[in-house]
Structure formats: C-alpha cells, structure tokens
Known about the structure:
This protein is of the alpha/beta class. The chain has 2 domains: 2-166 and 322-335, Rossmann fold (3-Layer(aba) Sandwich); 168-321, 3-Layer(aba) Sandwich (Rossmann fold), CATH 3.40.50. 35% of the residues lie in helices and 16% in strands. Strands 9-8-7-10-11 form a 5-stranded parallel β-sheet. A 4-stranded parallel β-sheet has the order 4-3-5-6, sandwiched between helices. α4 (121-128) packs across α5 (144-151). The longest helix is centred in the N-terminal third of the chain and has 19 residues, at 47-65. The protein is globular, with a radius of gyration of 19 Å. The relative contact order is 0.17.
Amino acid sequence: MAQANLGLAAGKVPAPPTLSVVPPRPQCSASRLFAGRDILGTHDLSMTELDVILETAERYACALENRERLRVMDGKILATLFFEPSTRTRLSFETAMLRLGGSVITVSEAGSSSAAKGESLADSIKTVDGYADVIAVRHPMKGAAQVAADAASIPVINAGDGTGQHPTQALLDVYTIKKEQGRLEGLTVAMVGDLRNGRTVHSLVHLMAMFGNRLMFVAPPGLEMPAEVTAGLRSRGVDVYETHDLEEVIPHCDVLYVTRIQRERFADQAEYERYRGSYVVDGGLLRRAKPGLTIMHPLPRVDEIATDVDMHPGAAYFRQAHNGVPVRMALLALVTGSV
C-alpha cells in the first residue's frame, strides 16, 4: 500500500514505579495520523507522531499492568510473515495482537511457506492481503518491506528487512530510553558493534537525532556506520563522534546500545570469526562507566555482553524486550484505526 506509507524517520537504574494513572489519549487525531498507513522506516516520523505512539504505548502498558482485558482488535487478524528467524519480534507482535483481542495467522520461516516453491514476495503478500487486516513482515532482503507495501492494500509493518530498517525495534528502544533515563533529550548515546549491517541502529539514529542527542559510534574497522548515515546526520547538525575504542567512550555515555557481530550478514565465515569478540561489555569495563548508565541490546546476544552485567542496575535489555509488547500494541491499533 505504497500510496499511504509512513516511513518512520527521523532506558535501568532501579526501575521507576509503574504509573498508576493511565495517561490521557493524545490530543491529536490518532486515526487521522496513522489509520491505513504502512510503518516501513524511521526517516519521516514527526515529533507529533512519535508522541502519539509513545503515549498510546504507555496507555496499553498501564492497561497490561492493571490486567485489563482489551477488545479493540476484536474481529481483526494480524498476519506475521517471517522469512528470517525471529524470537522477540515475532512473539511480541503476536502477543500484542492477542492482548488487543485480535487473532494471528503466521508464517514462521521461508521454508514453511510457498517461498520454498519459488513464489515471489509480492505474490505471497497479494494472497495474504485477502486473509488479514494488517501484515508484519520480516525478510532478509533490504527493501523487502517496500515490496510488500506496494503489493498490499492493507497496512504493512516492517519487522526487519535485511540490513535496512527495523522501525518497531527503534520505537521500543526510544520508549525504553524514556522510561530508563526519564527523558529523551540531552543524552549521549553510544552505539557499539556491527554498525554497517545493524538495521536496529540504522533506524534508531534518526529518532535519537530528533532530540539533539550526541551520538557516538563504536565499530571495528570495516563495520562502521554507513557513510551516508553519518553524513545525513551531520547535515542535520547532529553531534556525531566515531571511534574504534569502546573504553574511550564508556565514561561519557548515558546510554550504551550494544549490538552483536551478525554471523548471518557475512558471506565469508572466516571474516565473521575475525570480527567476533571485537567488543565485550563486562563488569570491569562498567567500573569506568558514568553513573546512571543504561545498557541496551536488541538481542539475541552472543558474547558481547557478559552475563555478570545482567545484575547491573542499568542493564535494561530484558526490560527493553518486554517493552516491545505495548509499543507494538500501539502500532497495530493505530494503523488499523482501532485506537
């Protein structure tokens, strides 16, 4: 549904108490902003739109905390089409839909669909278009979400397209940072790991840039943030600092966003082995960290965060994963006009 795309553009110290009062509904018309639209990237999201998503997610988080039974998606069906492996994204999308009172149909990997027989992504989408009210699609090809949106008449949400974008992850990351740090502006955010191939960081930088944050990119040589991304940020006046040295930035950052070296993005496994273990966040490193540091990771982790870090009060990555449910609840309700 390309004519209605929403390219979405452009945090624990001890857990803050859960709000006991559900925030008011956003003042602007959520239906006017989102109903029928695709969520493909993070490039064009306005501050108003971001506020609507975060406020709607917080309302649903409060409803879940209060064990409310929601029926806003009663009678509606989500199709989750995952042509790449996934645990958190697929399950949180499906949990979100079920929590809203809707239903789910799913393809869990390419081998379980007609893609194994040679069917094109566009043909698969055109078929599923008649079965569901909204589609969440993950695919190994960069740009696949746009292909899906072009083929569909119902909203399409990008659940990760190759090395391209992962907008719902970025939105739950922003939601997490706000909860953990208490604000979204005036932060120093360090992103660490495979920044060349990391769709999570490609999406998150645009949202963080909206709030005047300083961005520090830490990657091994050859896996740096793509030049077009850093150039675009600098053209917007964003303070960007690039280095290969994690120890250099750890005393200065408020948020440490760690990503793994992605084995599946390397055609040459020997090259992957050379990069593996480039950075390890452990208790020793954190002794040099700024007080109140929030440590995040989109997961799964391999060996880039030591398990002893899990006890650190700022280790937010499992809370971060859980935040995917209310954020994806908000997106599903918004794009289907069910808020």
